[in-house]
Amino acid sequence: MPLHLALRFSRILTRWYLGHISRIEAEKNLLQPGVQRGMFIVRDSESNPGAFSISIIDHDSDRGNNVKHYEIEKRDDDETGSFYIHERASFPTLAKLIKHHQLLYFFKGIWKEKTTAAIKTLKMGTSPSEFLSEANIMKNLRHLNLCQLCGICSDKESIYIVMEWMCNGSLLNYLKDGEGRNLELPGLVDIGAQIASGMAYLESMNYIHRQLAARNVLIGDANIVKVADFRLAKRSGSRSTQCNRAKAQSCIDLIPKLSMSCISVSRADVSILRKWTAPEVLMHKGFSIKSDVWSFGILLTELVTHGQTPYLGMTNEQAERLVGQGYRMPKMANCPDALYVLMLMCWDNDSAARPTFEFLYSYLDNYSSAEEPEYKEAE
């Protein structure tokens, strides 16, 4: 580990940072008798040099004890060092990152005495604006391939967002570690079509997702997938303003009515999944539904490679520089030419020339009988 990073770790780090151990070794350690739910290990990432991974033991009634893995990255452009799991929240040390994420919990529960649901809770005392903005977006969206909001409530200590339960978790973990490892091309293309269908609905509603990636898609029974994580979503062309503490508190007071229109995300506050992000966004020209299309093209590579990190072996900074120079990922092994052509269409440097999600859904939904895509704007 580089000395300048090692010096930034607090003493507590030595208790949970195990360095260069493999994913399999981490699972063996965490699945030993006596290890309780929520215990974790931080280790060097195997797939992304210079980054870290956190492995956490979880438990549910379907799989019993199981280990989940999340990547921790470090900003390339920050001399002081900044660690994050989600770029929206970054911290100068791993210890502070761990402390922050202890404030956010996910549970499996029962909604209205009969419906299995995912319950997301944030401890009071932390900023609730981003947490509640996701519910504010979700309450307006109704589509088979978008994660649905069941309700929201609070007590003296916590805020709870109740969402539909997706038994197989994130698409990324499903492709890498779940039954998705065995999915062949037709099943992968069907998943892509479902995602495009959900995004076509967002497109029709003038919403931009801004965080489209396999990690932000959930998968349930019968490989039904739903786009999730709407914390940074916004309406196209809407004015962004920051929600100050007073406004945030007024939003909390109105939770029973879900009246949270004051919550939004400013451009300065938006952090991005850089390897999934369109070049015009990286050049500070703003997000659009066409930048979501670019991200969808990257997501297609995740499907074809069963969860491989895009631009494998490159740092975020290296990938950004090469993409800005016109580089595009080469065709992956076992990727049909027609599907790769579709990816290249999503990565057109001219955002206006990229296809619509309506076209992407139509093409992928009819993929078995389709040949090379021919994109034309609807008249």
Describe the structure.
Belongs to the protein kinase superfamily. Tyr protein kinase family. The chain is 30% helix and 18% strand. It contains twelve helices and 13 strands. Strand 3 and strand 4 form a beta hairpin. The chain is globular.
Features:
379 residues; alpha+beta; five-stranded antiparallel beta sheet; four-stranded antiparallel beta sheet; 12 helices; 13 strands; 30% helix; disordered N terminus
Q: Main beta sheet, described? A: 5 strands, antiparallel
Number of helical segments with 4 or more residues? 12
Beta-strand share of residues = 15-25%
Name the poorly predicted regions. 1-14, 239-271
Q: Count the strands? A: 13
Alpha-beta classification: alpha+beta
Q: Helix proportion of residues, in percent?
A: 25-40%
Rg over CA atoms: 21 Å
Compute the average pLDDT: 78
The helix/strand series, from N terminus to C terminus, equals HHEEEEEHEEHEEHHEEEEHHHHHH
C-alpha termini separation? 57 Å
Strand arrangement, major sheet: 1-2-3-4-5
Would you kindly provide a brief summary of this structure?
The chain has 12 helices and 13 strands. By secondary structure, the protein is an alpha+beta fold. It catalyses: L-tyrosyl-[protein] + ATP = O-phospho-L-tyrosyl-[protein] + ADP + H(+).
